[in-house]
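The material for today's practical consists of a large collection of protein records. Read left to right, the C-alpha cells trace the chain's path through space. An example says more than a description, so a record of this kind follows:
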Amino acid sequence: MRHQAFMTLATNCADHSSNEVCKRMASIELKDIDFEKISRFVYDLCGIHLHEGKKELVKARLGKRLREGKFKSFSEYYRYVTTQQGADELICMIDSLSTNLTSFFREGEHFQLLRKIMPEMAKTPRKSRIPKLRIWSAGCSTGEEPYTIAMTLKELFNNGQADIRITASDISTRVLNTAVKGIYPEEKVKGISPDLLRKYFQVGQGDWRGHYRVKKEIHEVIDFVRFNLMDALACNDPFDVIFCRNVMIYFDKPTQGKMVRKFYEYLREGGYLFVGRSESLTGLNHQFKYIEPSVYQK
C-alpha cells in the first residue's frame, strides 16, 4: 500500500482556532434576523430547510467558521458569503450545515433487492453488445453507499458481463474528498463481510495500520461529482436505479416534490428509486409505482 497516497487525507475547512478565540466567539449571538437570512439563503441555494428548531445547530456549526475566518458577527459572515469574494467560504458553509451519516450496506434490504432486480434489468434490449447499467447515488456522503453498490454489482456481473457506471454526488466537498480517497478506518468497514473485504479492499500498513482502501476495480466504476440537487443534472444515459436515501428528510414538502419529479425524468422506463427506510413519497405529487416501503418504480 503506497504511503504517499494516504498523506493527502487532511480535510478542508479545518478549525485551528485557539481557546481564547473560542471563548470570544462563544459569546456571539445568532440574532433571529441573521438566522432568518441564513436559513432563507441556504434554502434558496440548495433546498435545505433550516427551521427554527435548527437555530442552535446553525449557531454551533457556523460558529466554527466564524472563528476560522475571524468574523465578528453572523451578519458580517452572511454578508461575506453572499459576495463573489466569499465563494470559497460559501462552499465551506454548506459543508458545515450538511449532515452526513452513512455506512457500508446501510439498510441492507435495499441491496438484497438490488441483487434481485439487476439481472432482469440487464436483459432489457439495449443498443450495446453488453448491458450498460447506470446508477446514481444522490447524496453519497463519504462514499460508503456508492462503493456498496459497486461491490454488489461486481458480484453479480463478473468478467465484463455489464458496463457499470455509478454517478455519486453530494453538495459537500468535505465528504466528497473522503469518498474519492476511499480510505476508511477499521470501525467503518465492520459491516462488510470478510470475503468482500479481502476481495475489494487493501489493508493499511505502518502508519495506516487499521485503515482500509478500496481497490481500483470498484473505485474506477464510480464518478464522484459535487452536485446541488436543486440544479439540473447533465447525463447522457437515463439511470436504471437512483438511490436518494435519508436525504429528503432535510427538505420541505414542495422541495421534495420537485426532487422526486426530477428523479422520475432521469430514470429509464422500468427504473427504480430507492429512498430511506424512514422516508416515503406519501403526500407528494408523483407518477411512481409503489413497490415496497421506500422502493418505487417508473
User: Anything to note?
Assistant: Residues 50 and 213 are 35 Å apart (CA to CA). Residues 1-18 have pLDDT under 50 and may be disordered. The chain has two domains: 18-97, 109-183+216-297.
